[in-house]
Amino acid sequence: MSFSARTPRSPALLGFTAAAALLSLALSGCMPKASAAGQPSTSADGSPSASASASASSPGAHIVAASPQSPLKPLSFSVSGGTMTSVVVTSSAGGQPMPGKVATSGTSWGSDDLAYPGATYGVSALVTDAQGMVQTVSASVRVTRLSNTSTVGYNVTPSGDWTVGVNAPIVIRFYKPIHDKAAVERALTVYSSTPIVGAWHWIGSQELHFRPQTAWVPHSRVRLVAALDGVRAGPTLFGQNSTTLNFSVGDAHVTKVDGKTHMLTVYVAGRKYGSWPTSLGRPQFATRSGNYIVLLKEPTRRMTSCSASITCDPKNPNYYDLVVNWDARLTWSGTFIHSAPWSVAHQGVSNVSHGCINLSPAHAIDFYHLAQYGDLVTVTNTIRNASDLVASGDPGMSDWNGTWTAWVAGSALHQAITTSPLSAG
User: Fold this and answer.
1) d(CA 127, CA 79)
2) Cis omega (within 30 of 0) on the bond before 395?
3) Are 349 and 271 in a shared domain?
4) pLDDT (mean) for 54-81
5) How many independent structural domains does the chain possess?
């Protein structure tokens, strides 16, 4: 019997009370009165054995099923004392009946999908016994919960209740590699108060981004529903929990940095907010031209040439070890817009930094307080492009460098989506 590798279905329409671990079957009233069905057999330690059937004194047909069963295999059971003509398998938690097939022999049934971890399923089967009598037989089967080794957790950016920039991506970072990326994407729904076109895009096997084709609508609201609990993300890997995340979109902030004129200009809602002198990376550490986003902010950060992989030798002229104020991170590889009182004389004149974008303390604090996660920062007219950081999957460079076609191609489903409407409530 073959089965699909689809997500385990959420449990089904009719509720059934879980009986003991290994089951016998209660016969319908159309049968002659019989003695009680046999109890589940047990192993030496008192736990249920792999299967059970009715005792020899119990007439009629009975379900034979292991309980509990593994969520890593299709649900299955057989019938003793007859053949099945139809079967309905439902779960105590509600939902649609589990799809499956009766074998040609009529003596066994197997599910098309994997069972939901931790669920209890009820079985109702029409069975023709050896005397030709048709009866309804019932049973319940429990499915074990998953171990930590079979589940994958994740975190989501932005966090709940953030106000973000119009170019903010939704980022899901999984703690283990994902093999069935399409199943994961199918479990994700993005809502927005003003629907937009967007798409998911995988960066490696553990990071998934969603961004709009152009931008979020300013002052709109967005919700992510990640129904990942129980989703089969690999041959033996399942989502650990489900998450609903709400955030708001703020004003449109766009910052343009020109490496030739050495000026940084900020626009808010399409209007110029400020234009300030800046200094970018010197030639051997040139700031990359390209589209960045603000990833996070820190009022104070220690920066060293050693952590930036420049040099750890204090005697090297490129060595530095500084406490830097008003830091807006643009890449995880170490590009920031920050206060640089030591380079004020060069700001607006020449590029002297080790790759960061320098501002005077007054302008840096202004930018810091204005900036929000997902604000777009575009750098032009430098001697270095962003291709290396895009190729390495640096989060600050991954979202807005490249074509929309290439972005959609990075989805496991290879399709753009329109966000679902988000009601005022």
Assistant:
1) 8
2) no
3) yes
4) 78
5) 3
- Asked, for residue 20, whether it belongs to a domain, the answer is no
Token pair in block for residue 194: 């003003």
Q: Is residue 397 part of a domain?
A: yes
Residue 306 is among the residues annotated as catalytic for this protein: no
Helices (H) and strands (E) in the chain, counts: 5, 31
- 363 catalytic? Reply is no
pLDDT at 96: 82
Query: How many Å apart are CA 252 and CA 121, to the nearest integer?
Result: 51
DSSP 281: B
Q: Which residue has the higher pLDDT, 62 or 146?
A: 62
How far does Cα 10 stand from its chain's mean position? 18
User: How far is it, in rounded angstroms, from Cα 71 to Cα 85?
Assistant: 26
Of 338, 346, 354, 363, the catalytic one is 338
Indicate the pTM of the whole model. 0.74
Distance CA 160, CA 170 (A): 11
Q: How many residues does the chain have?
A: 425
52-67: average pLDDT:
62
The single residue of 62, 201, 209, 356 carrying the catalytic annotation is 356
Q: Is 16 helix (H, G, I), strand (E, B) or coil?
A: coil
Q: Is 101 helix (H, G, I), strand (E, B) or coil?
A: strand
For residue 16, is pLDDT > 50? Answer: no
Cβ neighbors of 154 (< 8 A, separation 6 or more) are: 172, 173, 174, 175, 226, 228, 239, 240
Q: What is the DSSP string of 309-320?
A: TS---TTSTT--
What is the pLDDT averaged over residues 343-360? 97
Task: Note down the domain range covering 157.
Answer: 149-251+408-421
